[in-house]
Amino acid sequence: MFQYILFDLDGTLTDPKVGITKSVQYALQALGIEEPDLDKLEPFIGPPLKDSFMEFYGFHHEQTEIAVEKYRERFVVTGIFENEIYAGIAQMLANLHCAGKKLAIASSKPTVLVERILEHFAIQAYFDVVVGSEMDGTRSRKEEVVEEALRRLVPQIFVNPSERSAEESSIQQINKKALRKSIAMVGDRKFDIEGAKAFGLTGIGVAFGYAQEGELEQAGADYIVETVAELERLLMK
């Protein structure tokens, strides 16, 4: 059913709550805001960091830049490893890899940090492509990340039909439509499902992540799974 599979990282493959929320807490303290309840900072898991500081705390540009700098000051040293891989994920990735599936990471987290996390949990070898954002904040939107991951993993879906004859173009469009059906985007937040929908991919939501109640349904997820075992069964069809 699925030959190409894109995975979000935070909340999908690993549980990063402690590292992310404590680093957000640290950044807020630097700006004079005390937030002792880490549960209230869970919405920071998933979306681009800058967007979250502006949306949840109304920071202007300069405050946001300071907050992101302070966040990374703690995260890159300590927070990055205050993280746990979900039970069963490593074995699932190994099984998918052995079955010949092509796997990619499509995360809004900076690529350099994504790679360190994959290496930390010894799962980097299962991925053919790893795409994240840039440290300067560019390519942080999920749609941008998904597009770049697709360009590297399945470049043929971006071939311009105008470069071929009408007959070849028609055949190619049919093939591309079938190809898109074989590509899935797996994530725990609405941003992942929206990224999938932007490119006609199958959007698979994982309920064991950090989505709010009803979030994945409202985003239009094609499938929602409750456990890692259920996710593996779906991806191995």
How would you characterize this protein structure?
The protein is of the alpha/beta class and 237 residues long. The chain is 45% helix and 15% strand. The chain contains 10 helices and 8 strands. The protein has a 6-stranded parallel β-sheet, sandwiched between helices. Helix 9 links the parallel strand 7 (202-206) and strand 8. Helix 2 packs across helix 3. The protein is globular.
Structural class: alpha/beta
Indicate the radius of gyration in whole angstroms: 18 Å
Average residue-wise pLDDT: 93
The number of distinct β-strands equals 8
* Helix content estimate: 40-55%
| Individual helix count | 10
Strand content: 5-15%
Low-confidence segments, ≥5 residues, pLDDT <50? none
User: SSE order, as H and E?
Assistant: EEHHHEHEHEHHEHEHEH
Shape, principal axes of CA atoms: globular
> What's the end-to-end separation, in Å?
6 Å
| Major sheet attributes | 6 strands, parallel
The largest sheet has its strands arranged as 5-4-1-6-7-8
What is this structure, in a nutshell?
The protein has 237 residues and is an alpha/beta fold. The chain contains 10 helices and 8 strands. It has helices at residues 17-30, 49-57, 61-75, 89-98, 111-120, 142-153, 166-181, 190-197, 215-219, 228-235, and strands at 4-7, 14-15, 84-85, 102-110, 129-133, 183-187, 202-206, 223-225.
